Amino acid sequence: MERASKLDGNTYCFGDYRFIPAQQRLMLADNPLRVGARALDLLHILVVRAGEVVSKEELITRAWPDTFVHESNLKVNIAALRRIFARTAPGISFIATVNGRGYRFISPLRVYGGNGPRLPSLSAEAAFRKLPDLAGVVGRDDIIADLAAKFLERRFVSVVGSAGVGKTTVAIALAKELTARYRDGVCFVDLTVIGDPQLTEATIAASLGVSSKWTNILAGIVEALHGRELLLVLDNCEHVLSNTSAIAEHLTMAIPGLRILATSREPLRSRSETIFRLSPLAYPDDQHGKSWTDAMAFPAMDLFARRASEVCGYRLDDADAPFVTAICRRVDGIALAIELAASRLQALKPAALLELLEHSFEPLNAGSGRNATRHETLFATLGWSYQLLSIDEARILRILSVFSGSFSVSDAYGVTSHFGRTAEEITEWVTSLASKSLLSVTHEDGAPIYRLLDSTRSFAFALLEKNGEHSDAQSCHARYLLRLMEKAEAEWQWRPRSEWTASYEPRMNDLRKAIDWAFGDGAIAEVGIRLTSAAVPLWDELSTVAESRRRVERALQSVQALSRCDPAVKMKLIASFASGLNFSNHFGPDADAAWTDANRLAREIGNVDFQFRTLWGLGILQSFTGRHKKAIATLEQFAQLADHENERPVVAEGERVRLTAVFYCGNVRRAHDGLNRLMHEHALSAKHSGVARFQMDRFVSIRVALATAAWVAGARGEAAAALREALDHSVALDHLVSHSNALAQAALPIALWSGDTETSRNHVATLARNLSLRDIPIWRPVCHFYEGAVMSIDGDVNGIGMMSSAIEQLITNNFVVRVPFYLAMLAEASIHHKQVALARDSLSAAFERADRQGEYWSQPELLRVRGLLRWLDGDLPGASETLSLATETATESGALFFRLRATTALAELWGQTDRRGPAAELLSPICDAFDDVSPCANIAKARHLLESLRQRASDAI
């Protein structure tokens, strides 16, 4: 158990408890509990087998190995665990006694970590650069020291206070102070960039370097943070309070090395949260602040003086001290309001500033409650600052509130170009707004990037609506996004993928906002349709299959508006809809109809590119649905079109699909040779191609097809190299559609054929993780099938049921490619688990479906399993004949690996019927045909059998 604990990197969470086997530690929240080592060993066994009955004998054997102990020792330790749980969680049962059998762990269990693939750790330097720039912090040194001390004991601290009080400033300063404590540094997450609480996870993920488009990404965040020591700063949580609280609670429980610092206007109300309330800066009362020396003892005055000096070189003196004191008092010590006021000394003297400020804030004197007054004071400060803007500056500020996140000067010009002003004037006004603290600014590659603070954006947007400008501004925003995305669509043809996605991925939130508005309040469906069409390449490059399909369907429903659009737009949308169906959980007639309709439109308008795309997509669909001969015919049309149009670059796309269909039809040798040639011909160009044109990355898809064909053909080294390149490149691209395809189509079958169950298990886990992060329904039953296959190999009979259920789902979905092969695997697994009736039914269905689909690549495997069944029935002549037919079929098709498996079974049969010499002669040449470059259970078995046959034959002589 000591060794098992070291190997088990999981953290097991139940109720308020965390159990960490590797540390032999049981925690209640953040507090360790005193538990004996033997009791923890027993708990480890029970949580690993949660829900199962673990016998008393097994518990004793594993907790006290090589030692005889009485059953009473087991009862004592179980009772000790129950006492701890009863004392700390009264009324809740975690361990149940199963009379006469053993014990069962019955509490809901969450498991984090494990030995699966890990994302690379984030360096402290890289994380630190994510912290925004910070001017000198005034009056917060003691608070920062206090908070730093809290993080020695607490893992989740929230800095809570009113709007503009300086929560973000304190959080950034504290984060810089704490950076050295955490191996992986600090990651800053600005939640003001979102308005929809459902985007909270995506925003956190993006700041961590995990993709920000996933529909379900919390598992991905946990994966990314596993094993890290990191301070995560969640800034401005108030508008996404519930979601952020749940996420923070989950991450705190799941990741021991994580510390969370949140800022919010109110507590997150998390069980793990320690609340620190941040007060406004202290300012002089009526009896103080009459002189410069007296005033500077207060941090609010100090902050005002510093910011005014930075803005315009202002120096506080005794004459101005009373006016500045009154200003700080008037804004209630709110740091943001003080900074905004200080910035106005460029144009006004302190006395005039105070007069204006008092006049503007007079209606707010009736505000009820201290917190309400502060909130109102901040917005009054914004209103006052807004009134001091020029007409053009004010208009620009209102318009900029349509952006959901950061924007550049060119973006600002894009949404205000109808003003009839020059780009230089827009730049000047944007720069002026930033200098007056109404825009925050950072720099990326030397260029300024702007954003509105949340309160400023809300304030400006309210004015936009009040002035009746909302509709025009949203329309300008949507039309600007349309121009931008149509430009992106054109650039996709030539810009490197990594550079292209880096440029346009940050537009996703604004893109969603523009599309939603166009179809909703904006009632300009044509813009929404064109935006959707132009955005398809971005969604495809980012593997956001579900979002793409949902939005494309919405666009296609606007039939009347669609009729007014360019026919090319309709063609692109229908092709995208068909593409989404190729990844769906069911292939019906609507998929064929969509591809055919899109192809017809492409031919009618003479769009050769989409003629290629639609023929390719239809061929893929036909192969997926077991119509391989039709797929070959469709891809021959593809090749003819490529030849007619002299489009050499696209030849590889169609040829790969056609050769895959040839492989499925049973000509393994021809498919292998063709795919091998294809890989070498397009080795360089494929690696730099985009993925949106043909759904998957060309470099990856060619190697996936080659890896499977090469392995079956017996070229194991070639197959392993191709698979390794496919997996590595798809991970480097961060394209989960391509990566999932590589896992399901090649990595999993090859791992099982080689007998590497541990790698198979890891591949299943990785594929399942991909499917939890992206909605790619097509691969779910395949993932479940291989999960069941691994369970079956491990001796778990429940794996048979999972395999059978997955095959039924594949047939229901009409995703029937490889189903004959899956049925043969199920039949063989059923034989091993002595479920002979199921084996017969599965094998019969495999032969029937193979004939119906014309899918004969795995025919040697079907015959081999039939031979095993006849052997099991005692029909040795029939078994020998069937296994001989399997070897002949494999030889004819060029499936050397399947020939090895069939020949091994036949030699084993002959060896048991006194035909050891002929069996050795049969097996020897096939063993010689394989090298020993990498381990393979099938080859090892054949060679061991050959050695045994030769030895027994020699002994007989």
Q: How would you describe the overall organization of this protein?
A:
With 957 residues, the chain is an alpha/beta fold. It has 45 helices and 15 strands. Among the domains are: 2-112, Winged helix-like DNA-binding domain superfamily/Winged helix DNA-binding domain (Arc Repressor Mutant, subunit A), CATH 1.10.10.10; 124-277, P-loop containing nucleotide triphosphate hydrolases (Rossmann fold, 3-Layer(aba) Sandwich), CATH 3.40.50; 292-386; 389-468, Arc Repressor Mutant, subunit A, CATH 1.10.10; 485-680, Serine Threonine Protein Phosphatase 5, Tetratricopeptide repeat (Alpha Horseshoe), CATH 1.25.40.10. The chain has a 5-stranded antiparallel sheet with strand order 4-3-2-1-8, with helices on one face. Strands 10-11-12-9-13 form a 5-stranded parallel sheet, sandwiched between helices.
What is the structure about, briefly put?
By secondary structure, this protein is an alpha/beta fold.
CATH architecture of the domain at 485-680: Alpha Horseshoe
Structural class: alpha/beta
CATH class designation of the domain at 485-680 = Mainly Alpha
pLDDT averaged over residues? 83
CATH topology of the domain at 485-680: Serine Threonine Protein Phosphatase 5, Tetratricopeptide repeat
| Low-confidence region ranges | 1-6, 115-129, 360-377, 685-692
Largest sheet: 5 strands, antiparallel
